[in-house]
Design a protein that fits this description.
314 residues, rod-shaped, 8% strand, 4 strands, alpha+beta, 10 helices
């Protein structure tokens, strides 16, 4: 019941001061409308793109889209955008002033929003007073992203090429040494291949050829070393060929031209501002003016009541 009377008292107060409150509300609405015009608040235009990661190799437990998000929000891309569009001049920031970098980063983060969508895609949104620049910045962020990932992949490929080239060179020296030993077995001891020589040597020995008996003797004496050296040579050649295949793949990856994103929604030049929303500002100013007016008249009425009670007592 007490709440009812309080509510009734408020409505009575509003009814009593209705014309004053109406004037305050209208004036506040007019001021809100006027001060939200382009002269006071520069309008901003928004451009955005939605993309999915592609051809990315994850290096941690992060998903591909999370890794994409980390790269898109990296300082490398931010500073490239700042340099390309001369944002210090664009945002009227004195680059020589103290704290200018912190201010620049703040402006960038306010106007460039990169976030994941519920569908595990990544959305890039840029707001700017110039709609063309907003759209161009979105395209540049995507371009810099592809270039940065390509550069990182190229660096890894160069490291792999260097490692496997060194390994292949070491194996090449081993192959040369083993080949020289195998050549010595062939030229000095007549040992070429046991499986292909055995029958011919047996026939030659049966016919009384002395050189055949000499070679057979060499096989008996050096067979174990020959087989060991031959097996080691073949195994080293196999590992050398695999190293060279890795080098070829790394060399190809170093020179490849590839994108790392699927753009499913491309940015366009907006023809309608998204900020400020003048009707909303006008409405909020009107409601705020009305509320302030009610508080003001409540204070006035509250001050009058004690005075009237004192006059009545007198």
């Amino acid at each position: 019941m007490e709440s009812y009377f309080k509510t009734k008292s408020i409505f009575n107060l509003i009814a009593k001061w209705k014309w004053h409150l109406l004037i305050i509300t209208v004036v506040a609405a007019i001021l809100g409308y006027v001060f939200s015009c382009p002269y006071f608040i520069h309008p901003k235009f928004k451009s955005s793109a939605t993309l999915y990661p592609a051809n990315i190799i994850c290096h941690s437990d992060e998903s591909e889209s999370e890794q994409m998000l980390q790269i898109l929000t990296s300082n490398d891309i931010m500073f490239k955008i700042i340099d390309k569009y001369d944002l210090y001049t664009h945002y009227a920031i004195d680059s020589t002033a103290k704290g200018s970098l912190d201010k620049m980063v703040g402006y960038y983060n306010d106007n460039v929003i990169i976030e994941k969508t519920p569908n595990d895609a990544v959305k890039i949104t840029v707001c700017d007073e110039n709609p063309q620049i907003a759209a161009d910045m979105v395209n540049s962020i995507i371009e810099f992203y592809d270039n940065l990932v390509l550069e990182v992949e190229a660096v890894k490929s160069r490291e792999i090429l260097r490692i496997y080239t060194d390994a292949a060179n070491e194996k090449a020296h081993v192959i040369d040494s083993l080949s020289a030993i195998m050549k010595k077995y062939g030229t000095e001891y007549g040992m070429i291949d046991l499986s292909s020589q055995s029958r011919a040597l047996s026939e030659a020995s049966a016919n009384g050829r002395g050189d055949a008996n000499t070679i057979i003797g060499n096989w008996k004496e050096y067979r174990a070393d020959f087989v060991k050296t031959d097996s080691l040579l073949n195994a080293t050649i196999g590992r050398y060929n695999k190293d060279m295949e890795v080098c070829d793949d790394a060399r190809r990856d170093m020179n490849k031209k590839q994108t790392f994103s699927h753009v499913v929604s491309r940015p366009y030049v907006a023809d309608k501002k998204f900020y400020p929303v003048r009707w909303l500002i006008t409405l909020l100013c009107a409601l705020g003016g009305c509320l302030v007016g009610i508080i003001a008249v409540a204070i006035i009425e509250g001050c009058r009541k004690p005075k009237e009670e004192v006059d009545t007592q007198d």
